[in-house]
Sequence to fold (667 residues):
Amino acid sequence: MADPISAGVSQNGIRGDHFAGAVLVAIAAFVAWENRAYPLGSLASPGPGSVPLMLALLLGGLGLLIIVRGGASPLLNSIDWNESKRGLVLLIACGVATFALERIGYRLTMIALLVFILGVIEHKKVLPTALVALGFAFGSYFMFATLLKVQLPRSPWGI
Amino acid sequence: MDGVFANLMLGFSVALQPSVLAYAFAGCVIGTLVGMLPGLGPLAGISLLLPATFGLNPIVAIVLLAGVYYGAMYGGSTTSILMRIPGEAASVMTCIDGYAMTQRGRAGPALAIAAIGSFVAGTLSVVALMLLAPTLATFALRFGPPEYTALLTMGLLVLSYMSGGSMLKTLAMATVGLVLGMIGIDAMSGYTRFSYGQTELSDGIGIVPVAVGLFGLSEILMTAGQPATPPAQKPTLRQLIPSMEEMRLSVGPIARGSVIGFLIGIIPGAAHIISSFVSYGIERRMSDTPERFGKGAIEGVAGPESANNAAATGAFVPMLALGVPTGPITAVMLAAIMVHGIAPGPMLITEQPQLFWGFVASMYVGNVVLLILNLPLVGLFVNLLRIPYSYLYPAILCFCVLGVYSVGNSVVDVWIMLVMGGIGYVLRKFEFDLAPVALGLVLSPMLELSVRQSLAMSGGSYGIFLDRPIAIAMFGAAAVLILLALKPLVFKSKDWRSDVGLDETTSQ
Fold:
């Protein structure tokens, strides 16, 4: 928990909990809206839409309470997002790897992912990067696919 | 008692088979590593190993995964004491006095007391598990849908009340988990809900991609790029021996930590984390010299380390006796059993005696293995801490992708993990507890089914929940928890979190 003074409790602005509560209310509204497709049934015999609707109402209510009681939470702009840029790049890299996984196979995907993270993000030298990437890709494939019989995708070229 | 002894002998005949013994040992080693390495907690470790257990027999699978779980509790103390880095969340409290002892040149005794405390607590709680679980399972045979409704409702409220942070936020996260659990086919009507035409979603969202995303991936996103940590000290065998005074001071905290940890472990939530906070708070309060805490008090290591190990075992009681997980870790372990066609629930112990008693016996063996791994071999494990994190986290990331993909050979699961990783990262920034999301996801179909089955049984009358004594007792306990949670709001008083050192400003 951030120090209330440094976090700006005495200052004006949107609080972290105000924002988080509003997002929860929006999610609740979305769930309730999407739930229109399912019959609600009756109180005595609830249909498939009844429990999701109740949960959406509960979530919306909790979101509102978080907003109401969020006055003492840190200011939204005081939350430290320093590592978010690196995190986003990692997520995108994993997304590309996921897209490639069944297309170019497990081993080539892992080699590409590790080369990108170690070589481009972490600025490691070529030799250690290559050794780790190749060692991990082939080592983990051998352990999981060969020894533990876990099915892993192969590339069209058999790798 | 004779029955218990005979069953335990059956268990040892299973646990001492070479293959079971080998997997118990492997689980303990992997667990110790998982506990030591930041960014890879027991949940992520167990989730990643899950696909590898599909080809094993169910006893071996559960023994391996349990070894990882309680092994992580042992291993977590090493980095906390030597480097002030909690390898996993339950070791946060050990950092305070453990690292202070290291700075005073007493790292060895701190490691030894942590390992001994973990061993004593782990062994005592296996005895309690062995005696309590069969009794609870027999009692639970009286449970019908109304009782399960009450139990699950009470469980979610206990989880929220016992959470380290804001009760409102925890309840909101549990509700998000319950909503996620609505995705897929409705068991009562056959409707497919919120799947948007994706056939992979018609079976619902699996616990593994959600758990790995929320806990494993989000941790990497938080910690990647952190500056390198200083090298850890490597104590010799001679330096591990505690003084008589340190032993004397540790006896009480270990005993109290064992009892507190086991009891907290049974109730839902992040029990192993909460138990270490509660134990630390109690030891500080009971001490004649509380001013020593924070400056290297051995009681501040002995209590929390014993408590988190006992809690890890306590969590197996409702899992094995009722088939109800108390947290995401036991939920993944239940999934591992169910893959083999074994239905969890009160009948598990009678229908699968080899599995239950083999599991119990393997935990006795596992605790001995872990004591050996964490005392004489601690230097060997410390060497692994020299691997730079910049090499470690990419490998963990690749293991996350590999583990999640291989559970169902599904790329959709990997996408779910990535989305959950991003969501988990943002939720951590806003100080939301993530465990309730995973638990809500698992409990959601059970809760919905039990509510609707109860109403079908009673012809639509909600009075069925008030006609059954067990259900009334559980709903009564849930009402008491709500009142306890409201008390600090109405009377502006402090709640239990402030007593154990958790930040009361988060408790709304």
